[in-house]
Amino acid sequence: MTGDGMTGALLAGAVVGAGLYLLVRALFPPRPGLAARLAAFDAARRRDEENAARRMAPTLEKVGGLRARIGRELVKLCEARGWRMHSVRADLAITGRSLEAFLATKFLLPATALLFTPVVAAYFALLGAGVSFQVPLWICVLFAALFFFFPDMQLKEEARARRQDFRHVVGAFLDLVAMNLAGGRGVPEALMAASDVGDGWAMLRIRDAVAGARITGQTPWQALGRLGDELDIDELRDLSGALALVADDGAQVRKSLTARAASMRSRELSELEGKAGERSQSMLVAQLLLCAAFLIFLAYPAVMRVMAA
Question: Which parts of the sequence belong to the Type II secretion system protein GspF domain (predicted)?
Fold first, then answer.
């Protein structure tokens, strides 16, 4: 048997074995253990909380059709395995996406890349390259791996930008709360009045958290801390802890909030100056490269004449 025939037989055997294994697992699924049952219970409770958050966030991504069914099955699989994915859930919460849509995208993009394997093989055959089936297969596997990690990179970048915007809003929110405290309001009333000022998505999330605290029987700073845990915003967690310590002393609260707002503005200014410096260095490097290319362009004819002589 030739090498190509042996490789084809091995691939066919691997595909048949994997299919038999999946068929047996589908017909006789393993019984979940205690840890899996507890994880499913926690996941159901967390899903109820996320559904409540979705009702308060009308911009959350809607999923339908085949993508929704695949996403729900993948979410059930992750919950049965006890996979928490805290950072992914926090990024999805701040970007207004659903976990079902994210997991379905991570599954469908690589699957689509693998389905294009026969197309790539036919393309190589039309070109007359004379390559074996393994080359198109490995090309599609490489693209499938890239497509698998692409949603994560996109989500991280978008979440980073939205967290930066949220921190800017938190700084303004602290100033508004301090102003309301200076006007003689209590801490809960000052938090609610400050959250009613803006209509941006970040201020709406803060307003919903503060308003929902009355329904759930929590204090407003506890609700802000919970929102900080959900969105992975350290400033909200720090604000919740500070308000819990000095909630009974209005003067101390006002001083603490003013100092925190000034510190956040100073840090944002430092970050902006750092980014401006990086861009200035990038422009300087680009200008030096252009100057070097122009000097080479001017000197090239003379150098060639000297070398020819």
Answer: 173-299
Q: Which residues contact 114 (CB under 8 A, 6 or more apart)?
A: 140, 141, 144
> What totals of helices (H) and strands (E) does the chain contain, helices first?
12, 0
**C-beta of residue 247 within 8 angstroms of C-beta of residue 253:** yes
Give pLDDT tens digits for 270-280.
777 787 888 88
CA 89 – CA 226 distance, rounded (Å): 14
CA distance 133 to 120: 9
For the entire predicted model, the pTM comes to: 0.62
> From CA 252, how far away is CA 224, in angstroms rounded?
19
For the segment 297-303, the average pLDDT, to the nearest whole number, is 82
* Start-to-end Cα distance in the chain: 63
Other Cβ atoms within 10 Å of 33 Cβ, number: 10
Whose CA is closest to 169, among 235, 108, 110? Answer: 235
pLDDT(44) > 70: no
In single-letter form, the type of residue at position 130 comes to G
Name the least confident of 7-11, 88-92, 196-200, 297-301.
Answer: 7-11
Q: How many CB atoms lie within 10 A of CB 164?
A: 11
